[in-house]
Specification:
The complex is a heterodimer of chains A (480) and B (446).
Chain A lengths: L1 H12 L6 H11 L6 E17 L2 E19 L2 E7 L4 H11 L34 H18 L3 E19 L4 E19 L2 E11 L11 H17 L6 E8 L6 H8 L4 H5 L20 E4 L20 E6 L2 E2 L6 H7 L7 E2 L8 E2 L3 E4 L6 H6 L3 E13 L5 E13 L2 E6 L2 E6 H4 L3 E4 L4 E2 L5 E4 L2 E4 L1 E4 L2 E9 L4
Parallel strand pairs in A: 7-14, 13-22
Antiparallel strand pairs in A: 1-2, 1-4, 2-3, 4-5, 5-6, 7-23, 8-9, 8-13, 9-10, 11-12, 14-15, 15-16, 15-17, 17-23, 18-23, 19-22, 20-21
Chain B lengths: L9 H17 L4 E17 L2 E19 L2 E7 L4 H15 L33 H16 L5 E20 L4 E19 L2 E11 L8 H13 L10 E7 L1 H14 L2 H5 L20 E3 L22 E5 L2 E2 L6 H7 L13 E3 L6 H8 L2 E8 L9 E12 L2 E14 H6 L1 E4 L9 E2 L3 E9 L2
Parallel strand pairs in B: 7-12, 11-16
Antiparallel strand pairs in B: 1-2, 1-4, 2-3, 4-5, 5-6, 7-17, 8-9, 8-11, 9-10, 12-13, 13-14, 14-17, 15-17
Chain lengths: 480, 446
């Protein structure tokens, strides 16, 4: 953590002639009798992406983003302003604008600086330089060649490689002074297979808070290729998905997007403070079947959704949301925690300096149960086995959520049948987990591709779960 | 702030573009293109009678693409200072050393440039200050809360005022730009009945502040939309006629545009491959693009590659007349550039019937969809499956609210199955359509 703070000082503050003292004076200008809290969020980010299409690496881009966001909070009111100039006059202007939320012209006392305890979940490295440009290009070409070699019916291959090197520093009126260096990489493979005039797509990918060598180690990059080609091949054989309510077995890993949509968003502190969530006021109640335990864990090593500290400087945590079926807690940022009289759970996140923080998920998953996955499939007479999903969405007030299967099979008499076309599954968040009737012993996290959107802000997240049987989910196919 | 003055004038932005192009030439690029933007905005939300958030936005950005022969590299930065611009250009040039030769790579042809572009009346700054915006947001929300005592909670009333300048230039010598505004009022409230909660919203958006709907009307419509959803129930799994209300019908038309976009076509990732000249909609349907409509939300005087754009038919008598292409996809497909870099601007679906009420009557029995959630659309195959809520219609009238169901079909069949397009055109976006009635879709429910 100290290393990250030194790095952020050297790369963000020093070049602009700023130091702790000047941050203190900006914050004390921001504060006043009616301003409870203020913070400055500095960010410096360098990102790149490379894309292969038609067998050639035809595009590459590089993005430089930097700036500072200034926030003033008075009760449940927030004033916010930001600047892409990290200079004292710009900071003073931004803080004047932000404090317009409260009518006062006095200044306040900033607490003594203290560095909150965070984690060392990933290295403070620059992933952009972790492979040479030529090695990045070679990796993309190898992926293309592998896809075409695996199946001659492959007609299109798109491969992309993206990396971010982000440095953040937050200074707050409560004395928080903290920084983090956050690497993030991602590789995606998408193929189209064509046969007898029918075309189907398959895609796969992964990544984390690591360097690009992650995709070379253990042949991970080529695993994504194999997975994308396999999935496209399966989809080529797919028949109409059924329509109606049936028992559904969800595979392990990425299908955990169920948890993210069905309960995750509904357990974010802001919605519960405002009582607009279908889960508002339900702590201590049974909201899931016995045996269901769900956590949000920002402390997993190298994972895409992990954070050493959140964007308010609070160390990330493993927060139990549901324990053995009982609703235990919400995910909080500082403001909502204070207004609800609890502590922040380290879930205060923001897309960038130009966005306000809010309670967001990190890595959300369900703990393993005791059933063998085969046993779970064998238990279903007639239903659906869904193993891959696209995105999902939730209306947190009514509790209705959807998630869309991109690879699924019929189950007939306990056996896997034909693959079916993609279909959206819909359910009611507060009751879907009460219908979990079997939990597998095969907990798996996703491969590191999740992006969560809320109020127009995107942040990287993770999900996971073991194989699950859910009784009576509605499957939105076209078949009768 | 209250005058919405931009921190960088169009001339400043033009200079920045020139600086980028010169820097690229210095670095040895054979050609280059750059876009620079500068935006300011004020965004206010009032919740339960008090201001909740007050946000001042000030964004800027530079994007550059350089070409070394047929190899290209791109870079962008949010920092307009010379050092940052130089760093971005150098990064783009470095990338171009590694990308492969691509025969279609390069600027749009010089003769297509919109050297003489029109003024489309897009700039209408709103001289509203924070105090006034807060008061207006309060009025919007208060109007919603007053409608009915079943409106018990709120996500607030909001006021947004935006103004932005955008300049594009390339090494053909084209440099063009314009300033545009976009303002909106919105409201989201929560209603409660028998222990169940629902929320819905309404918004008004326009480039001209004086053309925004009144605060009271925005609030009341948000409340009415929320109230009518209370007591929603599921329906049985069945095939039925489906009517998309105008605001959700826009997404359906959006999928059509996605399928005739050059980038989807050359990748063969579209369900409308090789459909030029073929019927994709019923014969009574016409869709056209009007990029130069004065003051409209989708208007632009030229496309995002500086290419002259013009009004054209996309679909006439149900037949697909053109794809929507930029210079790269046009080259890949061996077709002419259609001036659609950056998308379709003001796509107008011509109404074929009366208003929403008359479409509900025409449908007789079926589902009126007023909200869709999820992303269950496969653009390669056209397979469509999304979560929906709305109203069950019987005897040509709304019978009861419906929720937690899905609707599914294939977009090609859905387009061919359109029965009517309503006259209740929603003008709040770049796609302008009324409600759309489809003959049937599969509904999954109980």
């Amino acid at each position: 953590m100290t290393q990250a703070l030194d790095f952020a000082r050297a790369h963000i503050l020093s070049p602009s002639g700023l130091d702790e003292q000047s941050l203190g004076s900006v914050l004390s200008q921001l504060l006043g009798p009616t301003i409870d809290y203020g913070d400055l969020y500095f960010q410096l980010s360098r990102s790149e992406s490379w894309g292969l299409e038609d067998g050639i690496v035809k595009s590459g881009s590089y993005n430089i983003e930097q700036g500072v966001g200034v926030r003033a909070i008075s009760g449940d009111k927030t004033g916010f302003s930001y600047s892409d100039e990290i200079l004292l006059p710009a900071l003073m202007d931004a803080s004047k604008a932000a404090r317009a939320i409260a009518h006062s012209h006095q200044t306040g006392q900033v607490q003594a600086w203290q560095q909150p305890s965070g984690h060392h979940l990933y290295l403070p490295m620059d992933p952009l330089g972790s492979l040479s440009e030529q090695d990045k290009i070679d990796l993309l070409h190898r992926a293309d060649a592998e896809a075409r070699k695996l199946d001659p019916r492959v007609s299109q291959v798109n491969v992309s490689l993206a990396g971010v090197h982000e440095v953040m520093l937050v200074a707050a009126s409560d004395g928080t002074l903290a920084a983090d260096v956050r690497p993030l990489v991602r590789m995606n493979v998408s193929v189209i297979i064509e046969q007898n005039g029918r075309r189907e797509q398959g895609s796969a990918g992964g990544g984390g808070r690591v360097g690009y060598e992650y995709f070379i180690e253990d042949d991970r990059g080529m695993d994504y290729v194999r997975e994308a080609v396999r999935m496209a091949g399966v989809n080529l054989e797919s028949i109409e998905a059924p329509a109606g309510t049936m028992d559904v077995v969800l595979g392990p890993g990425w299908p955990g997007v169920l948890l993210h949509e069905a309960i995750g968003h509904g357990l974010e502190g802001d919605f519960n403070r405002k009582k607009t969530s279908a889960f508002s006021g339900r702590i201590g109640e049974q909201v899931a079947a016995r045996g269901v335990t769900v956590v949000d864990d920002g402390t997993m090593e190298n994972r895409r959704g992990s954070l050493n500290i959140d964007d308010e400087g609070t160390g990330s945590q493993c927060t139990t949301l549901i324990e053995d079926g009982i609703l235990k807690g919400y995910m909080q940022d500082k403001m909502n925690a204070r207004l609800m009289g609890v502590d922040s759970t380290g879930n205060g996140r923001r897309e960038s300096y130009a966005h306000l923080p809010m309670p967001r998920m990190t890595n959300t998953y369900m703990l393993a149960g005791e059933h063998d996955p085969e046993e779970i499939i064998a238990s279903v007479d007639k239903g659906l086995y869904a193993v891959n999903f696209g995105g999902g969405q939730v209306d947190i007030t009514s509790g209705k959520f959807v998630f869309s299967a991109s690879e699924a099979y019929l189950i007939e008499n306990g056996k896997l049948g034909a693959p079916v076309k993609g279909a959206t599954l819909i359910g009611n968040g507060p009751d879907v987990l009460t219908r979990v009737s079997m939990i597998g012993n095969d907990l798996k996290l996703d491969t590191g591709v999740g992006v969560c959107g809320k109020d127009g802000q995107s942040v990287p997240v993770g999900v996971g779960q073991p194989t699950l049987r859910v009784d009576g989910l509605t499957v939105g196919g076209t078949g009768g | 702030m209250s005058e919405q003055s931009l921190p960088h004038s169009l001339d400043d932005l033009k200079q920045a573009v020139q600086q980028v192009l010169e820097r690229a030439a210095d670095q040895g690029a054979t050609s280059a293109e750059a876009a620079v933007s500068s935006d300011v905005g004020l965004s206010v939300t009032a919740r339960l009678g008090e201001v909740e958030t007050l946000e001042y936005h000030k964004d800027q950005g530079v994007g550059v693409t350089v070409y070394f022969g047929q190899c290209k590299g791109s870079a962008s930065t949010s920092d307009l200072r010379t050092e940052a611009i130089n760093e971005a250009v150098e990064a783009a040039c470095r990338i171009a050393r590694y990308t492969a030769k691509d025969p279609c790579s390069g600027l749009a042809e010089a003769e297509l440039m919109a050297y003489d572009y029109p003024d489309l009346d897009l700039d209408h700054p709103w001289g509203i200050d924070a105090e006034q915006a807060i008061e207006l947001a309060r009025e919007i929300e208060a109007a919603a809360m007053d409608v009915d005592q079943r409106i018990t909670n709120s996500d607030g009333g909001s006021v947004n005022a935006y103004r932005g300048g955008w300049v594009y230039g390339n090494s053909h010598g084209f440099v063009g730009g314009y300033v545009s505004t976009r303002h909106s009022l919105s409201c989201t409230v929560v209603g409660e009945q028998d222990g169940g909660m629902q929320r819905d919203y309404w918004y008004s958006a326009s480039r001209k502040p004086e053309e925004l709907e009144g605060a009271e009307s925005v609030g009341q419509r948000a409340a009415e939309r929320t109230l009518r959803r209370l007591g929603g129930r599921r329906i049985g799994t069945q095939q039925a006629a489906v009517l998309f209300s105008a605001d959700v019908a826009r997404s359906l038309v959006g999928h059509f545009v996605g399928a005739i976009r050059g980038s989807a076509l050359y990748r063969k990732a579209s369900f409308l491959l090789d459909q030029l000249g073929e019927p994709v909609f019923p014969e009574f349907m016409h869709l056209h693009e009007a990029p130069h409509l004065p003051g409209a939300l989708g208007s632009a005087p030229f496309d995002s590659e500086g290419v002259r754009n013009m009004a054209k038919d996309l679909v006439k008598d149900g037949v697909l007349k053109t794809y929507v292409l930029d210079s790269y996809s046009a080259c890949k497909l061996g077709l002419a550039n259609t001036g659609n870099a950056g998308g379709v601007r003001n796509l107008i679906v011509e109404p074929t019937a009366g208003d929403l009420d008359s479409l509900v009557r025409d449908m007789g029995t079926g589902l009126l969809v007023t909200e869709l959630i999820g992303h269950g659309i496969n653009m390669v195959t056209g397979d469509y499956s999304r979560g929906a809520s709305g109203f069950w219609v019987e005897n040509g009238e709304l019978a009861y609210p419906v929720e937690e169901i899905t609707i599914a079909g294939n977009l090609r069949d859905m387009f061919q199955g359109i029965q009517a397009v309503g006259s209740d055109v929603d003008l709040r976006g770049s796609i302008r359509t009324g409600s759309i009635l489809l003959d049937r879709m599969m509904i999954a429910g109980e």
